[in-house]
Design a protein that fits this description.
three-stranded antiparallel beta sheet, elongated, single chain, about 230 residues, mainly alpha, about 60% helix
């Protein structure tokens, strides 16, 4: 910067230290402001101290310029779809802001909020898929949930109990079929590493437990322990 050429030797020495402090903050991707720059400069290079910077217009001018450049750089990084979301089919437009001529710091805040919203949407989708997968293996009672009424946030009070507290529904259904006398015999069939339970009825064969349900039942029985 031309500022280095316009100041005396003593001020130039202080500017050099300020420059090194700003460079370190940028490398660490830390927060850059007057107090932080003064703290890094004092700790790493012996000064200038905060009061010295506050009383020196050249030092404040240089730090302000570095802060503006740093904020613009961070804003560009957050707007770049290759950095924020490499697989995004709809990259963010550089001018997608509510108004033109916004300060780089304001644009950076907007970008950070948008990134947080995108992350939360993704997390909610993952949680929905997880809940769907869990309820397929351990269905919940919607009748009980509706009977209890909505919670404070107006959602249904659905509770998935631990795996060892409830018998898997497919296993319970298979036992009910057996005890109702609907099958003449049971047969365990194995192929490769897969196992299933088949009911032999007078007229046909019926799969009571698929390989996945068989493994789920084994895990549930193992979780009961030897004493149960």
């Amino acid at each position: 910067m031309r500022l280095f050429e316009q100041v005396g030797p003593k001020a130039r020495s202080s500017l050099e230290r300020i420059k090194k402090a700003c460079d370190q903050i940028e490398l660490a991707k830390g927060t850059m402001n007057y107090s932080r720059v003064a703290a890094v400069a004092t700790e790493q290079f012996g000064g200038p101290r905060p009061q010295t910077i506050q009383n020196n217009s050249e030092l404040k001018l240089y730090i302000a310029a570095r802060m503006s450049e740093y904020a613009a750089h961070l804003s560009k990084r957050h707007r770049d779809p290759r950095r924020s979301n490499p697989q995004s089919a709809h990259p963010r437009q550089p001018d997608a802001y509510p108004a033109e001529g916004l300060d780089p710091k304001v644009r950076l805040c907007i970008d950070l909020l948008r990134d947080d919203n995108t992350r939360l949407v993704t997390e909610n989708k993952n949680l929905s898929l997880l809940l769907e997968r869990e309820t397929k293996t351990r269905p919940v009672s919607l009748t009980s949930a509706f009977a209890l009424g909505p919670t404070e946030d107006l959602s249904l009070p659905i509770e998935i109990l631990p795996q060892t507290s409830d018998m898997p529904v497919p296993l319970l259904s298979a036992l009910r079929t057996v005890f109702k006398g609907e099958v003449a015999a049971l047969r365990v069939e194995r192929r490769d590493n897969l196992t299933c339970l088949v009911a032999c009825a007078p007229s046909d064969l019926r799969v009571l437990l698929t390989p996945a349900q068989w493994e789920s039942a084994k895990e549930w029985i193992a979780g009961l322990g030897d004493d149960n």
